[in-house]
Amino acid sequence: MEWALFTIAFIFGYVTCKVLYFIRATRLSMHILRAAHLVSVALLAKSMEDFYYAKVYRMEKMVESGESDHNIAAFSFLMEEEVSYYKQKSIEGLVVLHPEFFKQLLEFEDWKSAMRYLEKNKEAAAYYLNRGRTDD
């Protein structure tokens, strides 16, 4: 009878250990996935800054070289269209990469909701993006 009790206790302990390990691993995976979402959205937002600086620089050079107002306006319009397309496709790409099981972890589905998500988590995004950086 004692061996049966020992065997049952061992099996119960083993199963409990495996279940708790699975729960811990799942929780860790969810944190890693959310961190990846945050870093991805932060990098996309940073790329929008670079697009804006490139647009302003190009427009300044166009003015300096004597381009017509029509050409400058056309460039501005085309750049806005390109940026809008980039925003749409980049977020769609992030969403499409997730299997159905993980889609419930996504807190955004378009650019505006992604920016709200980034604003809500801006301290964490700054931490991830500045990690390991030294200010000399």
Overview of this protein structure:
Helix 1 (2-64) crosses helix 4 (111-120). It contains five helices and no strands. The chain has 136 residues and is mainly alpha-helical. The protein has one domain.
In short:
This protein is 84% helix and 0% strand.
List keywords for this structure.
136 residues; 5 helices; mainly alpha; elongated; 84% helix
How far do the termini sit from each other?
70 Å
* Secondary-structure element series: HHHHH
Number of domains: 1
Helix content: over 70%
Largest sheet: none
Number of strands: 0
What is the 3D shape? elongated
* Share of residues in strands: under 5%
Low confidence ranges: none
How does the SSE layout of this entry go?
Elements lengths: L1 H63 L4 H28 L3 H4 L7 H10 L1 H9 L6
